[in-house]
Amino acid sequence: MTLLTIRDFRPEDAEAVAAAHRAGREHLVQTPEMFVWREARPPKGSHYRTFVAELDGRVVGAVRCGVVVGTTTTGVGHANGSVLPGYRRRGAFTALLAAAERHLGGHGVVELHSWVDDEPGSRAFAEARGFTAGRTAHFAGRDLAKPLPPAPPLPAGVELRPASDFAADPRPVYEIEVDAARDEPGEIVLDAVEYDAWLAGEWNRPDLDRELTVVAVADGLPVAFSAVSTDGADRYWSAFTACRRAYRGRGLSKLAKLESLRRARAAGLRRAYTSNDATNAPMLAINAWLGYERCASERKYIKRLDGGAAGGGDGA
């Protein structure tokens, strides 16, 4: 008889949880250390929690959930996770999402968002449990051994600097992000991201590489950046590329991202990955110019919570 147990995450679960997260998803770049770090430093007000599933004593999957913060929109939560392929269809993910729904419902969440692998089995799983399909995002990757496009000339007054140059005062980088984040495609506008929360949750992430993260400075003012996290070995993740509204249309985001990739190649990284909303034509065009090729897709699924059934999809 198979024994299924749902419980809270422990630091010693990190390797197993990361393995479930990455299973079949080469494009996801996150280390076991990041799972431990996030669990120990949840965003303020997020009620962040990770549940793990054990089958006969083995950790086979997890779901990470919390209340969406950094926005004036209330009552929205997120729940994302996965189960190792060999242990699916045994009720583990259904039980994980049920635990997440109960937890989030207790903190006022009435609308649950979950990213699901854009493949028939995962979509059917989500839809059978009351989720409705929303927007699509595409993952893309590139081999860093392949040549990068030649760099266009820098516009007059523009310089490209590593984010480490702003270590003493990263507020200018924060100001780029909060200005740009308001225009990110999505159902929720991130219009209330406080500096201290950004500092704790983004700037101080252990996987943020401040040497590979490149900031474009125009006439002395930081105006665009391409933020990078890595797995500490040879894989690169484009975490966010942003430009202040008043400086768009000048190619500054493209220049920052190209310089970041150039630095990554020089540092010996081998694979680069990124993700974009399917409607984000400017960034999709930049990534195509940079040599990225689509490797996977995911769908946002949304469910109204009524205090009842479990939901979700076996996505990342």
Number of strands: 12
Global geometry:
globular
Number of helices: 8
Order of helices and strands: EHHEEEHEHEEHHEEEHEHE
Mean pLDDT: 95
Task: Give a quick account of the main beta sheet: strands, pairing sense, barrel closure.
Answer: 12 strands, mixed
Helix content: 25-40%
In short:
The protein is α+β, with helices and mostly antiparallel strands. The chain has helices at 14-22, 32-40, 92-105, 120-128, 171-181, 195-203, 252-266, 281-289, and strands at residues 4-8, 49-55, 58-67, 76-83, 111-117, 132-143, 158-162, 214-218, 221-230, 235-243, 271-277, 293-304.
Q: Can you characterise this structure?
A:
The chain is α+β, with helices and mostly antiparallel strands and 316 residues long. It folds into two domains: 141 residues, Gcn5-related N-acetyltransferase (GNAT) (Aminopeptidase); 144 residues, Aminopeptidase, CATH 3.40.630. The protein is 27% helix and 31% strand. It contains eight helices and twelve strands. The protein has a twelve-stranded mixed sheet, sandwiched between helices. The C terminus is likely disordered.
Q: Which features characterize this protein?
A:
Aminopeptidase; twelve-stranded mixed β-sheet; disordered C terminus; 2 domains; 316 residues
Secondary structure elements and pairings:
Elements: E1 4-8, H1 14-22, H2 32-40, E2 49-55, E3 58-67, E4 76-83, H3 92-105, E5 111-117, H4 120-128, E6 132-143, E7 158-162, H5 171-181, H6 195-203, E8 214-218, E9 221-230, E10 235-243, H7 252-266, E11 271-277, H8 281-289, E12 293-304
Parallel strand pairs: 4-5, 10-11
Antiparallel strand pairs: 1-2, 2-3, 3-4, 5-12, 6-11, 6-12, 7-8, 8-9, 9-10
